[in-house]
Amino acid sequence: MNEQALLRAQLRHKFDELPIHGQASADWKTLKKALKVALPISLLPLALHGKIWLTKKFLWLYLAVAGVGGSATALVVYSSRSADLAPSVSTVKQQHNPVHSIGVPPVAPKSGPKIPKSKSIPLVMVKDTISPSDTVRTMRNRKSPPRVARDTSIRRIRKTSRPLRDTVSRTIRNRKTTPRLERDTTISRARKTSRPIRDTTNMPVRNRKSPPRIERDTAVSRPRKTSRPMRDTTNIPVRKRKTIPRLARDTAIRQREATPPAGN
Amino acid sequence: MDDQKLSVIISGCVANKRKAQEKLYLLFYPGMYRLCMRYLRSDDLVPEALNSGFLKAFTKIDTYQAAKGDFDGWLAAIMIRCCIDLQRSELRFQHHDDVAETDYLATFLPDALERLYAADLLTHVRALPPASQMVFNLYEVDGFDHGEIASVLNITESTSRWHLSSAKKQLRNWINKN
Predict the structure, then answer these.
(1) pLDDT value at position B176?
(2) Gap from A12 CA to chain B (nearest CA, Å)
Protein backbone atom coordinates (compact mmCIF):
# COMPACT_ATOMS: atom_id res chain seq x y z
CA MET A 1 0.00 0.00 0.00
CA ASN A 2 2.91 2.36 0.57
CA GLU A 3 4.02 1.69 -2.95
CA GLN A 4 0.56 2.47 -4.20
CA ALA A 5 0.45 5.72 -2.26
CA LEU A 6 3.88 6.59 -3.59
CA LEU A 7 2.84 5.82 -7.15
CA ARG A 8 -0.27 7.92 -6.69
CA ALA A 9 1.79 10.88 -5.50
CA GLN A 10 4.18 10.48 -8.43
CA LEU A 11 1.36 10.33 -10.91
CA ARG A 12 -0.25 13.46 -9.49
CA HIS A 13 3.04 15.26 -9.55
CA LYS A 14 3.56 14.21 -13.16
CA PHE A 15 0.09 15.38 -14.18
CA ASP A 16 0.65 18.72 -12.42
CA GLU A 17 3.35 19.41 -15.00
CA LEU A 18 0.79 19.40 -17.79
CA PRO A 19 0.61 22.73 -19.65
CA ILE A 20 -2.71 24.55 -19.55
CA HIS A 21 -4.01 25.69 -22.91
CA GLY A 22 -7.04 27.56 -21.59
CA GLN A 23 -7.30 31.21 -20.44
CA ALA A 24 -8.67 31.69 -16.97
CA SER A 25 -9.98 35.25 -17.50
CA ALA A 26 -11.89 34.31 -20.65
CA ASP A 27 -13.39 31.23 -19.03
CA TRP A 28 -14.36 33.28 -15.99
CA LYS A 29 -16.29 35.72 -18.18
CA THR A 30 -18.24 32.82 -19.61
CA LEU A 31 -18.98 31.48 -16.16
CA LYS A 32 -19.95 34.95 -14.93
CA LYS A 33 -22.72 35.13 -17.52
CA ALA A 34 -24.03 31.78 -16.35
CA LEU A 35 -23.86 32.92 -12.74
CA LYS A 36 -25.96 36.00 -13.55
CA VAL A 37 -28.75 33.64 -14.52
CA ALA A 38 -28.22 30.90 -11.97
CA LEU A 39 -27.26 33.08 -9.00
CA PRO A 40 -28.43 36.65 -9.61
CA ILE A 41 -27.38 39.33 -7.15
CA SER A 42 -30.23 40.98 -5.27
CA LEU A 43 -29.95 44.80 -4.89
CA LEU A 44 -32.73 45.21 -2.32
CA PRO A 45 -30.60 44.48 0.75
CA LEU A 46 -28.09 47.09 -0.42
CA ALA A 47 -30.79 49.71 -0.73
CA LEU A 48 -32.35 49.03 2.63
CA HIS A 49 -29.37 48.34 4.81
CA GLY A 50 -26.50 49.88 2.89
CA LYS A 51 -24.88 53.16 3.74
CA ILE A 52 -26.53 55.27 1.04
CA TRP A 53 -27.00 58.90 2.08
CA LEU A 54 -30.27 60.46 0.99
CA THR A 55 -29.24 63.42 -1.12
CA LYS A 56 -31.75 65.25 -3.19
CA LYS A 57 -30.79 63.18 -6.21
CA PHE A 58 -31.07 59.86 -4.40
CA LEU A 59 -34.32 60.94 -2.83
CA TRP A 60 -36.04 61.06 -6.22
CA LEU A 61 -34.46 57.76 -7.20
CA TYR A 62 -35.73 56.24 -4.00
CA LEU A 63 -39.19 57.66 -4.70
CA ALA A 64 -39.22 56.01 -8.06
CA VAL A 65 -37.93 52.64 -6.82
CA ALA A 66 -39.33 52.18 -3.36
CA GLY A 67 -42.77 53.64 -3.85
CA VAL A 68 -44.95 55.78 -1.65
CA GLY A 69 -44.30 54.00 1.62
CA GLY A 70 -40.58 54.16 1.30
CA SER A 71 -40.65 57.71 0.05
CA ALA A 72 -42.63 58.89 3.06
CA THR A 73 -40.03 57.31 5.32
CA ALA A 74 -37.26 58.88 3.27
CA LEU A 75 -38.92 62.32 3.50
CA VAL A 76 -39.19 62.00 7.25
CA VAL A 77 -35.52 61.06 7.55
CA TYR A 78 -34.42 63.81 5.16
CA SER A 79 -36.41 66.49 6.86
CA SER A 80 -35.21 65.39 10.28
CA ARG A 81 -31.60 65.50 9.14
CA SER A 82 -31.97 68.93 7.63
CA ALA A 83 -33.83 70.16 10.71
CA ASP A 84 -31.16 68.82 13.02
CA LEU A 85 -28.23 69.98 10.99
CA ALA A 86 -29.35 73.48 9.96
CA PRO A 87 -29.22 75.29 13.32
CA SER A 88 -25.95 73.71 14.44
CA VAL A 89 -23.63 74.28 11.55
CA SER A 90 -20.54 74.53 13.67
CA THR A 91 -21.00 71.10 15.12
CA VAL A 92 -21.37 69.29 11.79
CA LYS A 93 -18.72 66.68 11.19
CA GLN A 94 -16.93 66.69 7.87
CA GLN A 95 -18.17 63.66 6.00
CA HIS A 96 -19.86 62.70 2.80
CA ASN A 97 -23.43 63.71 3.53
CA PRO A 98 -26.27 65.74 2.06
CA VAL A 99 -25.14 68.84 3.95
CA HIS A 100 -22.99 69.73 0.96
CA SER A 101 -25.92 69.70 -1.39
CA ILE A 102 -28.00 72.15 0.61
CA GLY A 103 -25.26 74.74 0.79
CA VAL A 104 -24.17 74.39 4.39
CA PRO A 105 -20.39 74.30 4.51
CA PRO A 106 -18.96 71.40 6.46
CA VAL A 107 -16.87 72.25 9.48
CA ALA A 108 -14.65 69.74 11.19
CA PRO A 109 -15.36 70.10 14.88
CA LYS A 110 -12.79 69.35 17.44
CA SER A 111 -15.24 69.16 20.26
CA GLY A 112 -18.89 69.78 20.62
CA PRO A 113 -22.15 68.28 21.55
CA LYS A 114 -23.25 65.16 19.76
CA ILE A 115 -25.88 65.51 17.09
CA PRO A 116 -29.09 64.05 18.45
CA LYS A 117 -30.69 61.19 16.56
CA SER A 118 -33.59 62.08 14.36
CA LYS A 119 -36.93 61.75 16.00
CA SER A 120 -40.18 61.12 14.29
CA ILE A 121 -41.61 64.39 13.07
CA PRO A 122 -45.34 64.97 12.66
CA LEU A 123 -46.70 64.99 9.18
CA VAL A 124 -47.39 68.72 9.32
CA MET A 125 -43.68 69.49 9.43
CA VAL A 126 -43.02 67.04 6.65
CA LYS A 127 -45.49 68.85 4.42
CA ASP A 128 -43.76 72.17 5.05
CA THR A 129 -40.55 70.82 3.68
CA ILE A 130 -42.21 69.82 0.44
CA SER A 131 -41.97 72.67 -2.01
CA PRO A 132 -45.06 73.48 -4.09
CA SER A 133 -43.16 72.77 -7.25
CA ASP A 134 -42.77 69.17 -6.22
CA THR A 135 -46.51 68.56 -6.07
CA VAL A 136 -47.06 70.44 -9.30
CA ARG A 137 -44.39 68.39 -10.94
CA THR A 138 -46.02 65.20 -9.96
CA MET A 139 -49.36 66.39 -11.29
CA ARG A 140 -47.90 67.54 -14.57
CA ASN A 141 -46.20 64.22 -15.04
CA ARG A 142 -49.50 62.41 -15.19
CA LYS A 143 -49.99 61.78 -18.86
CA SER A 144 -52.60 59.11 -18.86
CA PRO A 145 -55.50 58.42 -16.55
CA PRO A 146 -55.03 55.90 -13.79
CA ARG A 147 -55.05 52.38 -15.06
CA VAL A 148 -57.97 51.35 -12.93
CA ALA A 149 -60.31 53.94 -14.42
CA ARG A 150 -59.65 52.93 -17.99
CA ASP A 151 -62.59 51.43 -19.70
CA THR A 152 -61.44 48.42 -21.66
CA SER A 153 -64.82 47.59 -23.13
CA ILE A 154 -64.28 50.01 -26.00
CA ARG A 155 -60.97 48.43 -26.87
CA ARG A 156 -62.50 45.00 -27.03
CA ILE A 157 -65.27 46.13 -29.31
CA ARG A 158 -62.82 47.64 -31.76
CA LYS A 159 -61.33 44.27 -32.46
CA THR A 160 -64.47 42.99 -34.02
CA SER A 161 -65.98 46.09 -35.60
CA ARG A 162 -65.20 49.72 -35.69
CA PRO A 163 -67.49 51.72 -33.49
CA LEU A 164 -69.64 54.48 -34.95
CA ARG A 165 -67.66 57.64 -34.51
CA ASP A 166 -69.59 60.62 -33.38
CA THR A 167 -68.79 63.34 -35.91
CA VAL A 168 -71.62 65.64 -35.12
CA SER A 169 -69.73 67.42 -32.41
CA ARG A 170 -66.67 67.95 -34.59
CA THR A 171 -65.94 71.38 -35.96
CA ILE A 172 -67.27 72.08 -39.42
CA ARG A 173 -63.78 72.49 -40.89
CA ASN A 174 -62.83 68.93 -40.18
CA ARG A 175 -66.00 67.42 -41.43
CA LYS A 176 -65.35 65.91 -44.79
CA THR A 177 -68.45 63.85 -45.15
CA THR A 178 -71.86 64.00 -43.67
CA PRO A 179 -72.21 62.32 -40.34
CA ARG A 180 -72.50 58.64 -40.78
CA LEU A 181 -75.54 58.41 -38.63
CA GLU A 182 -77.44 60.95 -40.69
CA ARG A 183 -76.55 59.60 -44.06
CA ASP A 184 -79.41 58.33 -46.05
CA THR A 185 -78.30 55.03 -47.40
CA THR A 186 -81.33 54.62 -49.65
CA ILE A 187 -79.80 56.97 -52.20
CA SER A 188 -76.53 55.12 -52.30
CA ARG A 189 -78.29 51.87 -52.81
CA ALA A 190 -80.41 53.35 -55.52
CA ARG A 191 -77.36 54.58 -57.43
CA LYS A 192 -76.13 51.09 -57.79
CA THR A 193 -79.12 50.08 -59.82
CA SER A 194 -79.92 53.19 -61.92
CA ARG A 195 -78.73 56.70 -62.30
CA PRO A 196 -80.98 59.32 -60.73
CA ILE A 197 -82.65 61.81 -62.97
CA ARG A 198 -80.83 65.15 -62.89
CA ASP A 199 -82.93 68.20 -62.84
CA THR A 200 -81.55 70.48 -65.54
CA THR A 201 -84.32 73.04 -65.66
CA ASN A 202 -82.39 75.54 -63.63
CA MET A 203 -79.16 75.24 -65.53
CA PRO A 204 -78.03 78.40 -67.46
CA VAL A 205 -78.80 78.47 -71.17
CA ARG A 206 -75.19 78.35 -72.30
CA ASN A 207 -74.52 75.09 -70.62
CA ARG A 208 -77.61 73.47 -71.88
CA LYS A 209 -76.56 71.21 -74.65
CA SER A 210 -79.72 69.32 -75.09
CA PRO A 211 -83.27 70.04 -74.10
CA PRO A 212 -84.21 68.92 -70.66
CA ARG A 213 -84.63 65.26 -70.65
CA ILE A 214 -87.99 65.50 -69.01
CA GLU A 215 -89.36 67.81 -71.72
CA ARG A 216 -87.98 65.91 -74.64
CA ASP A 217 -90.59 64.48 -76.83
CA THR A 218 -89.52 61.04 -77.53
CA ALA A 219 -92.30 60.50 -80.00
CA VAL A 220 -90.42 62.68 -82.49
CA SER A 221 -87.20 60.79 -82.12
CA ARG A 222 -88.71 57.42 -82.66
CA PRO A 223 -90.23 58.07 -86.07
CA ARG A 224 -86.83 59.27 -87.31
CA LYS A 225 -85.49 55.86 -86.95
CA THR A 226 -87.98 54.33 -89.31
CA SER A 227 -88.47 57.00 -92.05
CA ARG A 228 -87.44 60.48 -92.83
CA PRO A 229 -90.20 63.11 -92.36
CA MET A 230 -91.57 64.82 -95.33
CA ARG A 231 -90.02 68.22 -95.91
CA ASP A 232 -92.28 71.00 -96.94
CA THR A 233 -90.71 72.49 -100.02
CA THR A 234 -93.51 74.79 -101.10
CA ASN A 235 -91.92 77.86 -99.69
CA ILE A 236 -88.49 77.27 -101.09
CA PRO A 237 -87.51 80.01 -103.66
CA VAL A 238 -87.64 79.15 -107.39
CA ARG A 239 -83.88 79.23 -107.96
CA LYS A 240 -83.20 76.48 -105.55
CA ARG A 241 -85.98 74.42 -106.82
CA LYS A 242 -84.54 71.68 -108.75
CA THR A 243 -87.53 69.58 -109.12
CA ILE A 244 -91.18 70.17 -109.19
CA PRO A 245 -92.59 70.08 -105.77
CA ARG A 246 -93.61 66.69 -105.05
CA LEU A 247 -96.96 67.75 -103.75
CA ALA A 248 -97.77 69.80 -106.84
CA ARG A 249 -96.67 67.16 -109.20
CA ASP A 250 -99.40 65.91 -111.36
CA THR A 251 -99.27 62.26 -111.50
CA ALA A 252 -101.65 62.26 -114.42
CA ILE A 253 -99.06 64.11 -116.50
CA ARG A 254 -96.47 61.54 -115.68
CA GLN A 255 -98.70 58.78 -116.76
CA ARG A 256 -99.43 60.65 -119.98
CA GLU A 257 -95.73 61.12 -120.64
CA ALA A 258 -95.04 57.57 -119.91
CA THR A 259 -97.49 56.00 -122.31
CA PRO A 260 -96.90 56.90 -125.97
CA PRO A 261 -99.83 58.21 -128.02
CA ALA A 262 -101.59 55.66 -130.05
CA GLY A 263 -101.17 55.83 -133.86
CA ASN A 264 -97.54 56.79 -134.23
CA MET B 1 -3.09 29.28 0.41
CA ASP B 2 -3.70 30.09 4.00
CA ASP B 3 -6.75 28.32 5.42
CA GLN B 4 -8.03 31.51 6.98
CA LYS B 5 -7.90 33.39 3.69
CA LEU B 6 -9.57 30.49 1.95
CA SER B 7 -12.37 30.41 4.52
CA VAL B 8 -12.93 34.15 3.99
CA ILE B 9 -13.20 33.60 0.24
CA ILE B 10 -15.57 30.69 0.73
CA SER B 11 -17.71 32.82 3.03
CA GLY B 12 -17.87 35.46 0.31
CA CYS B 13 -18.95 32.81 -2.19
CA VAL B 14 -21.67 31.63 0.15
CA ALA B 15 -22.88 35.27 0.25
CA ASN B 16 -22.94 35.23 -3.58
CA LYS B 17 -20.29 37.93 -3.96
CA ARG B 18 -18.84 38.02 -7.45
CA LYS B 19 -15.37 39.12 -6.34
CA ALA B 20 -15.05 36.19 -3.98
CA GLN B 21 -16.30 33.79 -6.64
CA GLU B 22 -13.78 35.14 -9.12
CA LYS B 23 -10.92 34.74 -6.62
CA LEU B 24 -11.92 31.16 -5.89
CA TYR B 25 -12.24 30.39 -9.61
CA LEU B 26 -8.80 31.76 -10.45
CA LEU B 27 -7.27 30.01 -7.45
CA PHE B 28 -8.47 26.51 -8.35
CA TYR B 29 -8.52 26.94 -12.14
CA PRO B 30 -5.14 25.26 -12.94
CA GLY B 31 -5.69 22.18 -10.76
CA MET B 32 -9.24 21.57 -11.95
CA TYR B 33 -8.23 22.20 -15.58
CA ARG B 34 -5.60 19.41 -15.36
CA LEU B 35 -8.08 17.11 -13.65
CA CYS B 36 -10.52 17.57 -16.50
CA MET B 37 -7.72 16.95 -19.04
CA ARG B 38 -7.08 13.54 -17.42
CA TYR B 39 -10.70 12.43 -17.48
CA LEU B 40 -11.72 13.79 -20.90
CA ARG B 41 -10.46 12.53 -24.21
CA SER B 42 -9.94 15.93 -25.86
CA ASP B 43 -9.01 19.44 -24.73
CA ASP B 44 -12.08 20.94 -26.45
CA LEU B 45 -14.40 19.55 -23.80
CA VAL B 46 -12.32 20.79 -20.87
CA PRO B 47 -13.71 24.38 -20.60
CA GLU B 48 -17.27 23.10 -20.73
CA ALA B 49 -16.70 20.52 -17.99
CA LEU B 50 -14.73 23.03 -15.94
CA ASN B 51 -17.39 25.74 -15.98
CA SER B 52 -20.17 23.22 -15.35
CA GLY B 53 -18.28 21.98 -12.32
CA PHE B 54 -17.63 25.45 -10.95
CA LEU B 55 -21.25 26.47 -11.50
CA LYS B 56 -22.42 23.45 -9.52
CA ALA B 57 -19.84 24.20 -6.84
CA PHE B 58 -20.98 27.83 -6.46
CA THR B 59 -24.59 26.72 -6.34
CA LYS B 60 -23.94 24.10 -3.67
CA ILE B 61 -21.15 25.85 -1.79
CA ASP B 62 -23.32 26.32 1.26
CA THR B 63 -23.28 22.51 1.72
CA TYR B 64 -19.47 22.42 2.06
CA GLN B 65 -18.29 21.70 5.58
CA ALA B 66 -14.64 22.25 6.41
CA ALA B 67 -14.74 19.60 9.13
CA LYS B 68 -15.51 16.86 6.61
CA GLY B 69 -12.53 17.47 4.35
CA ASP B 70 -10.49 19.81 2.23
CA PHE B 71 -12.16 22.16 -0.15
CA ASP B 72 -9.84 20.88 -2.90
CA GLY B 73 -11.14 17.32 -2.53
CA TRP B 74 -14.76 18.54 -2.36
CA LEU B 75 -14.35 20.55 -5.54
CA ALA B 76 -12.48 17.71 -7.28
CA ALA B 77 -15.34 15.30 -6.56
CA ILE B 78 -17.77 17.72 -8.23
CA MET B 79 -15.47 18.11 -11.24
CA ILE B 80 -15.08 14.33 -11.63
CA ARG B 81 -18.84 13.86 -11.66
CA CYS B 82 -19.18 16.56 -14.32
CA CYS B 83 -16.55 14.84 -16.47
CA ILE B 84 -18.28 11.48 -16.06
CA ASP B 85 -21.62 13.00 -17.04
CA LEU B 86 -20.03 14.56 -20.11
CA GLN B 87 -18.42 11.25 -21.15
CA ARG B 88 -21.23 8.96 -20.10
CA SER B 89 -22.43 8.36 -23.63
CA GLU B 90 -19.00 7.00 -24.61
CA LEU B 91 -18.56 4.70 -21.62
CA ARG B 92 -18.91 1.07 -22.58
CA PHE B 93 -18.22 -1.27 -19.67
CA GLN B 94 -17.39 -4.89 -20.13
CA HIS B 95 -19.24 -6.52 -17.30
CA HIS B 96 -17.36 -9.26 -15.50
CA ASP B 97 -18.31 -11.10 -12.40
CA ASP B 98 -16.06 -12.51 -9.72
CA VAL B 99 -12.89 -10.79 -10.83
CA ALA B 100 -10.41 -10.88 -7.96
CA GLU B 101 -7.65 -8.43 -7.25
CA THR B 102 -4.86 -10.40 -8.92
CA ASP B 103 -2.79 -7.70 -10.56
CA TYR B 104 -0.58 -6.50 -7.72
CA LEU B 105 2.13 -5.12 -9.94
CA ALA B 106 2.48 -1.38 -10.07
CA THR B 107 1.53 0.24 -13.29
CA PHE B 108 4.88 1.94 -13.81
CA LEU B 109 8.37 1.49 -12.61
CA PRO B 110 9.58 4.60 -10.76
CA ASP B 111 12.37 5.16 -13.28
CA ALA B 112 10.02 4.87 -16.22
CA LEU B 113 7.68 7.40 -14.76
CA GLU B 114 10.50 9.86 -14.18
CA ARG B 115 11.60 9.62 -17.78
CA LEU B 116 8.11 10.22 -19.11
CA TYR B 117 6.93 13.63 -20.16
CA ALA B 118 3.56 14.65 -18.75
CA ALA B 119 2.10 15.18 -22.22
CA ASP B 120 3.19 11.67 -23.29
CA LEU B 121 1.68 10.16 -20.16
CA LEU B 122 -1.56 11.96 -20.93
CA THR B 123 -1.48 10.66 -24.50
CA HIS B 124 -1.06 7.08 -23.27
CA VAL B 125 -3.89 7.47 -20.73
CA ARG B 126 -6.20 8.94 -23.37
CA ALA B 127 -5.39 6.05 -25.70
CA LEU B 128 -7.04 3.65 -23.25
CA PRO B 129 -10.68 2.68 -23.77
CA PRO B 130 -12.96 5.32 -22.18
CA ALA B 131 -14.21 3.03 -19.41
CA SER B 132 -10.69 1.86 -18.53
CA GLN B 133 -9.38 5.42 -18.62
CA MET B 134 -12.11 6.47 -16.18
CA VAL B 135 -11.46 3.62 -13.75
CA PHE B 136 -7.67 4.14 -13.92
CA ASN B 137 -7.97 7.84 -13.09
CA LEU B 138 -10.42 7.20 -10.26
CA TYR B 139 -8.35 4.43 -8.66
CA GLU B 140 -4.70 5.16 -9.38
CA VAL B 141 -4.67 8.99 -9.37
CA ASP B 142 -7.61 10.13 -7.22
CA GLY B 143 -7.60 7.31 -4.68
CA PHE B 144 -11.17 5.99 -4.99
CA ASP B 145 -11.71 2.38 -4.01
CA HIS B 146 -13.63 -0.11 -6.13
CA GLY B 147 -16.78 0.23 -4.07
CA GLU B 148 -16.90 3.99 -4.59
CA ILE B 149 -16.07 3.59 -8.28
CA ALA B 150 -18.88 1.07 -8.66
CA SER B 151 -21.40 3.45 -7.10
CA VAL B 152 -20.22 6.45 -9.14
CA LEU B 153 -20.17 4.60 -12.47
CA ASN B 154 -23.11 2.35 -11.68
CA ILE B 155 -21.16 -0.87 -12.26
CA THR B 156 -20.12 -3.81 -10.14
CA GLU B 157 -16.84 -3.96 -8.25
CA SER B 158 -15.74 -6.89 -10.40
CA THR B 159 -16.21 -4.82 -13.53
CA SER B 160 -14.22 -1.99 -11.95
CA ARG B 161 -11.37 -4.40 -11.08
CA TRP B 162 -11.34 -5.85 -14.56
CA HIS B 163 -11.10 -2.44 -16.24
CA LEU B 164 -8.31 -1.33 -13.89
CA SER B 165 -6.32 -4.48 -14.59
CA SER B 166 -6.80 -4.01 -18.33
CA ALA B 167 -5.66 -0.37 -18.15
CA LYS B 168 -2.54 -1.25 -16.15
CA LYS B 169 -1.49 -3.97 -18.60
CA GLN B 170 -1.82 -1.68 -21.59
CA LEU B 171 0.04 1.21 -19.97
CA ARG B 172 2.84 -1.08 -18.81
CA ASN B 173 3.29 -2.44 -22.32
CA TRP B 174 3.43 1.04 -23.91
CA ILE B 175 5.73 2.61 -21.38
CA ASN B 176 8.12 -0.35 -21.19
CA LYS B 177 8.37 -0.35 -24.96
CA ASN B 178 9.50 3.24 -24.87
Answers:
(1) 73
(2) 6
